[in-house]
Amino acid sequence: MNKSLLKMAILSISLLTVMAGAAVAPALADISVAFPDASETTIKLIMTLPSVMIIPFTFLSSYLTRKMTKKTLVFIGIFFYVIGGVGGGLVPTIEWLLVCRAILGIGVGFLMPISTSLVADFFDGEERTATMGQVSAANNFGGIVLFLSSGLLAALSWRITFSVYLVALIVAIVVFFFLPKRSPEHIPVGTTLAPLPKKLYVLGAGMFFLVLAFYSIPTNMALYLNQEGLGSSQLAGMVIAIATAFGLVAGMVLRKVNQLLKIFVIPSQLVLMASGFLIIGFTTNLLFLAVGVGLMGFGFGVIMPTVFDRVSREVPRVQTVQAMALVTSMLFLGQFSSPIVLDAVGMIANQESIRFTYQFVGIAMMIVSIFHLILTNRVRSAFMNERVS
Q1: Proportion of the chain above pLDDT 70, given as a percent
Q2: How would you class 200 by CB atoms within 10 Å of its CB: exposed for 0-12, middle for 13-18, buried for 19 or more?
Q3: pLDDT digits 0-9 by tens, 297-353
Q4: I need a surface site. Which of 199, 239, 275, 327 has the fewest CB within 10 A?
Protein backbone atom coordinates (compact mmCIF):
# COMPACT_ATOMS: atom_id res chain seq x y z
CA MET A 1 0.00 0.00 0.00
CA ASN A 2 1.42 3.38 -1.07
CA LYS A 3 0.89 5.62 1.97
CA SER A 4 1.32 8.82 -0.01
CA LEU A 5 -1.52 7.91 -2.38
CA LEU A 6 -3.60 6.64 0.54
CA LYS A 7 -3.09 9.93 2.36
CA MET A 8 -4.05 11.84 -0.79
CA ALA A 9 -7.34 9.90 -0.91
CA ILE A 10 -8.10 10.58 2.76
CA LEU A 11 -7.23 14.26 2.44
CA SER A 12 -9.34 14.61 -0.71
CA ILE A 13 -12.41 13.48 1.27
CA SER A 14 -11.58 16.10 3.89
CA LEU A 15 -11.77 18.80 1.21
CA LEU A 16 -15.52 18.31 1.11
CA THR A 17 -16.57 18.32 4.75
CA VAL A 18 -16.35 21.09 7.35
CA MET A 19 -16.82 24.10 5.05
CA ALA A 20 -19.42 22.50 2.76
CA GLY A 21 -22.34 24.45 4.15
CA ALA A 22 -20.42 27.74 4.08
CA ALA A 23 -19.17 27.37 0.51
CA VAL A 24 -21.84 29.66 -0.91
CA ALA A 25 -21.42 32.33 1.80
CA PRO A 26 -20.24 35.00 -0.67
CA ALA A 27 -23.54 34.69 -2.56
CA LEU A 28 -25.83 35.19 0.46
CA ALA A 29 -26.38 38.89 -0.15
CA ASP A 30 -27.36 38.20 -3.78
CA ILE A 31 -29.62 35.31 -2.76
CA SER A 32 -31.41 37.60 -0.29
CA VAL A 33 -32.10 39.99 -3.18
CA ALA A 34 -33.37 37.12 -5.35
CA PHE A 35 -35.81 36.08 -2.59
CA PRO A 36 -36.87 39.41 -1.03
CA ASP A 37 -39.70 37.85 1.02
CA ALA A 38 -37.26 35.60 2.90
CA SER A 39 -36.07 36.83 6.30
CA GLU A 40 -32.40 37.31 7.15
CA THR A 41 -32.52 34.25 9.41
CA THR A 42 -34.04 32.16 6.57
CA ILE A 43 -31.24 33.27 4.25
CA LYS A 44 -28.67 32.19 6.85
CA LEU A 45 -30.37 28.76 6.98
CA ILE A 46 -28.99 28.20 3.49
CA MET A 47 -25.63 27.71 5.19
CA THR A 48 -26.71 26.19 8.49
CA LEU A 49 -29.54 23.81 7.48
CA PRO A 50 -27.08 21.20 6.14
CA SER A 51 -25.80 20.90 9.71
CA VAL A 52 -29.19 19.62 10.94
CA MET A 53 -29.11 16.73 8.49
CA ILE A 54 -25.42 16.06 9.08
CA ILE A 55 -26.02 15.21 12.75
CA PRO A 56 -28.25 12.09 12.39
CA PHE A 57 -26.40 10.89 9.31
CA THR A 58 -23.03 10.93 11.10
CA PHE A 59 -24.49 8.36 13.49
CA LEU A 60 -26.03 6.40 10.62
CA SER A 61 -22.64 6.43 8.91
CA SER A 62 -21.06 5.14 12.12
CA TYR A 63 -23.58 2.28 12.31
CA LEU A 64 -23.23 1.36 8.64
CA THR A 65 -19.45 0.89 8.94
CA ARG A 66 -20.37 -2.48 10.49
CA LYS A 67 -22.48 -3.40 7.45
CA MET A 68 -20.48 -2.08 4.48
CA THR A 69 -17.03 -0.76 3.65
CA LYS A 70 -16.03 2.81 4.36
CA LYS A 71 -15.18 3.23 0.69
CA THR A 72 -18.79 2.42 -0.26
CA LEU A 73 -20.05 4.91 2.33
CA VAL A 74 -17.80 7.59 0.84
CA PHE A 75 -19.41 7.10 -2.59
CA ILE A 76 -22.90 7.25 -1.06
CA GLY A 77 -21.92 10.50 0.64
CA ILE A 78 -20.52 11.99 -2.57
CA PHE A 79 -23.74 11.13 -4.43
CA PHE A 80 -25.89 13.11 -1.98
CA TYR A 81 -23.25 15.84 -1.83
CA VAL A 82 -23.35 16.51 -5.59
CA ILE A 83 -27.15 16.25 -5.91
CA GLY A 84 -27.82 18.56 -2.98
CA GLY A 85 -24.94 20.93 -3.67
CA VAL A 86 -25.40 21.57 -7.37
CA GLY A 87 -29.20 21.30 -7.13
CA GLY A 88 -29.33 24.42 -4.99
CA GLY A 89 -28.54 26.55 -8.01
CA LEU A 90 -31.30 25.04 -10.17
CA VAL A 91 -34.41 25.44 -8.01
CA PRO A 92 -37.12 28.11 -8.39
CA THR A 93 -38.03 28.82 -4.75
CA ILE A 94 -36.32 29.37 -1.41
CA GLU A 95 -38.16 26.31 -0.03
CA TRP A 96 -36.67 24.01 -2.66
CA LEU A 97 -33.28 25.60 -2.12
CA LEU A 98 -33.49 24.64 1.55
CA VAL A 99 -34.49 21.07 0.57
CA CYS A 100 -31.33 20.82 -1.55
CA ARG A 101 -29.26 22.13 1.36
CA ALA A 102 -30.70 19.38 3.54
CA ILE A 103 -29.67 16.78 0.93
CA LEU A 104 -26.17 18.27 0.92
CA GLY A 105 -26.14 17.75 4.70
CA ILE A 106 -26.93 14.07 4.25
CA GLY A 107 -23.87 13.73 2.03
CA VAL A 108 -21.56 15.49 4.48
CA GLY A 109 -23.04 13.41 7.31
CA PHE A 110 -21.84 10.24 5.58
CA LEU A 111 -18.40 11.69 4.80
CA MET A 112 -17.34 13.54 7.93
CA PRO A 113 -16.80 10.73 10.49
CA ILE A 114 -15.28 8.51 7.79
CA SER A 115 -12.69 11.12 6.80
CA THR A 116 -11.35 11.44 10.36
CA SER A 117 -11.66 7.75 11.34
CA LEU A 118 -9.59 6.69 8.31
CA VAL A 119 -6.62 8.49 9.86
CA ALA A 120 -6.91 6.32 12.98
CA ASP A 121 -7.26 3.21 10.76
CA PHE A 122 -3.96 3.69 8.95
CA PHE A 123 -1.72 5.90 11.16
CA ASP A 124 -0.42 5.79 14.73
CA GLY A 125 1.56 7.93 17.19
CA GLU A 126 2.97 11.26 16.06
CA GLU A 127 2.24 10.34 12.45
CA ARG A 128 -1.45 10.26 13.39
CA THR A 129 -1.22 13.72 14.98
CA ALA A 130 0.57 15.09 11.93
CA THR A 131 -1.99 13.51 9.59
CA MET A 132 -4.88 14.93 11.65
CA GLY A 133 -3.24 18.31 11.11
CA GLN A 134 -3.04 17.62 7.39
CA VAL A 135 -6.73 16.65 7.38
CA SER A 136 -7.48 20.03 8.96
CA ALA A 137 -5.24 21.70 6.39
CA ALA A 138 -7.17 19.89 3.64
CA ASN A 139 -10.46 21.09 5.18
CA ASN A 140 -9.19 24.64 5.03
CA PHE A 141 -7.64 24.28 1.57
CA GLY A 142 -11.01 23.08 0.36
CA GLY A 143 -12.54 26.12 2.03
CA ILE A 144 -10.11 28.45 0.25
CA VAL A 145 -10.88 26.93 -3.14
CA LEU A 146 -14.63 26.96 -2.50
CA PHE A 147 -14.77 30.49 -1.06
CA LEU A 148 -12.60 32.09 -3.73
CA SER A 149 -14.38 30.22 -6.52
CA SER A 150 -17.85 30.99 -5.17
CA GLY A 151 -16.89 34.64 -4.65
CA LEU A 152 -15.87 34.94 -8.29
CA LEU A 153 -18.87 32.98 -9.54
CA ALA A 154 -21.24 35.07 -7.39
CA ALA A 155 -20.22 38.07 -9.51
CA LEU A 156 -21.76 36.27 -12.50
CA SER A 157 -24.84 34.79 -10.82
CA TRP A 158 -25.70 33.39 -7.41
CA ARG A 159 -27.02 30.27 -9.18
CA ILE A 160 -23.68 29.53 -10.82
CA THR A 161 -22.06 29.69 -7.38
CA PHE A 162 -23.50 26.27 -6.52
CA SER A 163 -21.45 24.64 -9.27
CA VAL A 164 -18.47 24.66 -6.85
CA TYR A 165 -19.84 21.42 -5.41
CA LEU A 166 -18.86 19.60 -8.61
CA VAL A 167 -15.38 19.30 -7.08
CA ALA A 168 -16.76 16.17 -5.37
CA LEU A 169 -16.60 14.34 -8.71
CA ILE A 170 -12.81 14.75 -8.76
CA VAL A 171 -12.66 13.42 -5.20
CA ALA A 172 -14.72 10.40 -6.26
CA ILE A 173 -12.12 9.54 -8.91
CA VAL A 174 -9.23 9.83 -6.41
CA VAL A 175 -11.05 7.68 -3.84
CA PHE A 176 -11.93 5.04 -6.45
CA PHE A 177 -8.30 4.48 -7.40
CA PHE A 178 -6.38 5.07 -4.16
CA LEU A 179 -8.54 4.26 -1.12
CA PRO A 180 -8.31 0.55 -0.15
CA LYS A 181 -11.58 -1.33 0.16
CA ARG A 182 -11.39 -2.82 3.63
CA SER A 183 -13.99 -5.15 5.13
CA PRO A 184 -16.66 -3.60 7.37
CA GLU A 185 -15.72 -3.03 11.02
CA HIS A 186 -15.96 -6.41 12.75
CA ILE A 187 -16.94 -6.72 16.40
CA PRO A 188 -16.44 -10.27 17.73
CA VAL A 189 -19.60 -12.08 18.83
CA GLY A 190 -20.19 -11.65 22.56
CA THR A 191 -18.06 -8.51 22.75
CA THR A 192 -19.67 -5.66 24.68
CA LEU A 193 -18.37 -2.24 23.79
CA ALA A 194 -17.72 0.04 26.73
CA PRO A 195 -19.68 3.31 26.92
CA LEU A 196 -17.88 6.24 25.38
CA PRO A 197 -15.70 8.06 27.95
CA LYS A 198 -17.25 11.13 29.61
CA LYS A 199 -14.30 13.14 28.38
CA LEU A 200 -15.65 12.80 24.84
CA TYR A 201 -18.85 14.57 25.86
CA VAL A 202 -16.79 17.41 27.32
CA LEU A 203 -14.79 17.66 24.09
CA GLY A 204 -18.04 17.57 22.11
CA ALA A 205 -19.54 20.40 24.18
CA GLY A 206 -16.38 22.45 23.70
CA MET A 207 -16.53 21.84 19.96
CA PHE A 208 -20.16 22.97 19.91
CA PHE A 209 -19.40 26.38 21.43
CA LEU A 210 -16.20 26.81 19.44
CA VAL A 211 -17.94 26.24 16.10
CA LEU A 212 -20.94 28.32 17.19
CA ALA A 213 -18.51 31.25 17.50
CA PHE A 214 -16.39 30.43 14.43
CA TYR A 215 -19.37 30.06 12.11
CA SER A 216 -20.37 33.67 12.71
CA ILE A 217 -17.67 34.51 10.14
CA PRO A 218 -19.04 32.70 7.06
CA THR A 219 -22.70 33.23 8.01
CA ASN A 220 -22.32 36.98 8.55
CA MET A 221 -19.32 38.28 6.59
CA ALA A 222 -21.08 39.05 3.28
CA LEU A 223 -23.93 40.75 5.15
CA TYR A 224 -21.46 42.51 7.48
CA LEU A 225 -19.43 44.02 4.64
CA ASN A 226 -22.72 45.06 3.05
CA GLN A 227 -24.01 46.65 6.26
CA GLU A 228 -20.80 48.55 6.91
CA GLY A 229 -20.29 49.52 3.26
CA LEU A 230 -16.90 47.82 3.22
CA GLY A 231 -17.16 45.59 0.16
CA SER A 232 -18.98 43.21 -2.18
CA SER A 233 -19.75 39.48 -2.38
CA GLN A 234 -16.42 38.84 -4.10
CA LEU A 235 -14.57 40.57 -1.26
CA ALA A 236 -16.52 38.54 1.30
CA GLY A 237 -15.21 35.36 -0.35
CA MET A 238 -11.65 36.66 -0.12
CA VAL A 239 -12.04 37.66 3.55
CA ILE A 240 -13.47 34.26 4.53
CA ALA A 241 -10.69 32.59 2.51
CA ILE A 242 -8.16 34.37 4.74
CA ALA A 243 -9.53 32.47 7.74
CA THR A 244 -9.27 29.17 5.92
CA ALA A 245 -5.79 30.03 4.59
CA PHE A 246 -4.51 30.60 8.12
CA GLY A 247 -6.31 27.42 9.19
CA LEU A 248 -4.45 25.58 6.45
CA VAL A 249 -1.11 26.86 7.79
CA ALA A 250 -2.17 25.87 11.31
CA GLY A 251 -2.92 22.32 10.18
CA MET A 252 0.47 22.02 8.48
CA VAL A 253 2.38 23.09 11.61
CA LEU A 254 0.08 21.35 14.10
CA ARG A 255 2.66 18.88 15.40
CA LYS A 256 5.19 21.63 16.13
CA VAL A 257 2.56 23.82 17.79
CA ASN A 258 1.51 20.92 20.04
CA GLN A 259 5.13 20.15 20.92
CA LEU A 260 5.79 23.81 21.77
CA LEU A 261 2.65 24.63 23.78
CA LYS A 262 1.83 21.17 25.18
CA ILE A 263 -1.17 21.37 27.56
CA PHE A 264 -1.55 25.09 26.86
CA VAL A 265 -2.25 24.54 23.15
CA ILE A 266 -6.05 24.88 23.37
CA PRO A 267 -6.31 27.81 25.84
CA SER A 268 -3.60 29.75 24.00
CA GLN A 269 -5.41 29.34 20.70
CA LEU A 270 -8.68 30.42 22.31
CA VAL A 271 -6.93 33.66 23.27
CA LEU A 272 -5.80 34.02 19.66
CA MET A 273 -9.33 33.48 18.37
CA ALA A 274 -10.80 35.91 20.90
CA SER A 275 -8.28 38.56 19.87
CA GLY A 276 -9.26 38.03 16.24
CA PHE A 277 -12.96 38.47 16.96
CA LEU A 278 -12.33 41.63 18.99
CA ILE A 279 -10.34 43.13 16.12
CA ILE A 280 -13.11 42.23 13.66
CA GLY A 281 -15.76 43.70 15.96
CA PHE A 282 -14.07 47.04 16.63
CA THR A 283 -12.19 47.89 13.43
CA THR A 284 -13.47 49.81 10.42
CA ASN A 285 -10.31 49.15 8.42
CA LEU A 286 -10.23 46.30 5.90
CA LEU A 287 -6.58 45.50 6.61
CA PHE A 288 -7.21 45.10 10.35
CA LEU A 289 -10.34 43.11 9.54
CA ALA A 290 -8.18 40.70 7.51
CA VAL A 291 -5.70 40.44 10.41
CA GLY A 292 -8.51 39.61 12.82
CA VAL A 293 -9.93 36.96 10.50
CA GLY A 294 -6.47 35.45 10.08
CA LEU A 295 -5.86 35.18 13.85
CA MET A 296 -9.26 33.60 14.34
CA GLY A 297 -8.65 31.14 11.49
CA PHE A 298 -5.24 30.06 12.80
CA GLY A 299 -6.57 29.43 16.31
CA PHE A 300 -9.48 27.39 15.03
CA GLY A 301 -7.16 25.53 12.64
CA VAL A 302 -5.07 24.33 15.60
CA ILE A 303 -7.88 23.53 18.03
CA MET A 304 -10.11 21.42 15.77
CA PRO A 305 -7.56 18.75 14.69
CA THR A 306 -6.12 18.71 18.22
CA VAL A 307 -9.57 17.78 19.55
CA PHE A 308 -10.08 15.08 16.91
CA ASP A 309 -6.62 13.67 17.64
CA ARG A 310 -7.51 13.42 21.33
CA VAL A 311 -10.84 11.80 20.49
CA SER A 312 -9.09 9.09 18.42
CA ARG A 313 -6.84 8.28 21.40
CA GLU A 314 -9.67 7.98 23.93
CA VAL A 315 -11.31 4.87 22.44
CA PRO A 316 -10.26 1.55 20.88
CA ARG A 317 -10.01 1.56 17.09
CA VAL A 318 -13.33 -0.29 16.65
CA GLN A 319 -15.14 2.63 18.35
CA THR A 320 -13.33 5.42 16.49
CA VAL A 321 -16.14 6.14 14.01
CA GLN A 322 -18.70 6.17 16.85
CA ALA A 323 -16.56 8.61 18.85
CA MET A 324 -15.95 10.80 15.81
CA ALA A 325 -19.68 10.80 15.07
CA LEU A 326 -20.42 12.11 18.57
CA VAL A 327 -17.96 15.00 18.40
CA THR A 328 -18.74 15.71 14.75
CA SER A 329 -22.47 15.95 15.52
CA MET A 330 -21.72 18.58 18.17
CA LEU A 331 -19.56 20.45 15.65
CA PHE A 332 -22.38 20.68 13.15
CA LEU A 333 -24.97 21.41 15.84
CA GLY A 334 -22.81 24.42 16.61
CA GLN A 335 -22.90 25.41 12.93
CA PHE A 336 -26.69 25.20 12.84
CA SER A 337 -27.15 27.02 16.15
CA SER A 338 -24.73 29.84 15.36
CA PRO A 339 -27.08 32.33 13.62
CA ILE A 340 -30.03 31.37 15.83
CA VAL A 341 -28.18 31.83 19.13
CA LEU A 342 -26.18 34.90 18.12
CA ASP A 343 -29.19 36.62 16.52
CA ALA A 344 -31.14 35.92 19.73
CA VAL A 345 -28.33 37.47 21.81
CA GLY A 346 -28.49 40.58 19.64
CA MET A 347 -32.28 40.82 20.04
CA ILE A 348 -32.08 40.41 23.82
CA ALA A 349 -29.41 43.13 24.02
CA ASN A 350 -31.40 45.28 21.59
CA GLN A 351 -28.24 45.39 19.43
CA GLU A 352 -29.02 43.62 16.19
CA SER A 353 -26.01 44.78 14.17
CA ILE A 354 -23.48 42.16 13.09
CA ARG A 355 -20.71 44.35 14.54
CA PHE A 356 -22.21 43.79 17.99
CA THR A 357 -22.27 40.03 17.33
CA TYR A 358 -18.51 39.99 16.72
CA GLN A 359 -17.84 42.18 19.77
CA PHE A 360 -19.95 39.90 21.97
CA VAL A 361 -18.27 36.73 20.68
CA GLY A 362 -14.80 38.24 21.17
CA ILE A 363 -15.46 39.34 24.76
CA ALA A 364 -17.17 36.06 25.73
CA MET A 365 -14.38 33.97 24.21
CA MET A 366 -11.68 36.04 25.92
CA ILE A 367 -13.33 35.50 29.31
CA VAL A 368 -13.58 31.74 28.68
CA SER A 369 -9.98 31.52 27.45
CA ILE A 370 -8.62 33.33 30.52
CA PHE A 371 -10.47 30.94 32.84
CA HIS A 372 -9.19 28.01 30.73
CA LEU A 373 -5.60 29.28 31.03
CA ILE A 374 -5.92 29.66 34.80
CA LEU A 375 -7.43 26.16 35.18
CA THR A 376 -4.80 24.59 32.90
CA ASN A 377 -2.00 26.27 34.85
CA ARG A 378 -3.43 24.96 38.14
CA VAL A 379 -3.64 21.42 36.72
CA ARG A 380 -0.04 21.73 35.53
CA SER A 381 1.13 23.02 38.93
CA ALA A 382 -0.68 20.24 40.78
CA PHE A 383 0.87 17.64 38.48
CA MET A 384 4.37 19.09 38.99
CA ASN A 385 3.93 19.19 42.79
CA GLU A 386 2.76 15.58 42.78
CA ARG A 387 5.86 14.53 40.83
CA VAL A 388 8.14 16.39 43.24
CA SER A 389 6.51 14.79 46.29
Answers
A1: 94
A2: buried
A3: 999 999 988 998 888 888 887 788 888 889 988 988 898 888 889 989 999 999 888
A4: 199
CA dist 209 and 281 (Å) reads 19
**Where are the alpha helices (H) located in 155-197, listed in sequence order?**
158-161, 167-178
The answer to whether the beta carbons of residues 305 and 132 sit under 8 Å apart is yes
Q: Exposed/middle/buried for 290, CB within 10 Å: 0-12, 13-18, 19+?
A: middle
Residue 192's SS3 state is coil
State the average pLDDT over residues 26-31.
82
Distance of CA 104 to the CA centre of its chain: 15
Write the single-letter amino acid at 8.
M
Q: Give dist(CA 326, CA 314) in Å, integer.
A: 13
DSSP 8-state code for residue 193: P
CA–CA dist 322, 311 (Å, integer): 10
pTM over 0.70: yes
Q: What percent of the chain has pLDDT over 90?
A: 39
CB-CB contact of 333 with 208 (8 Å) = yes
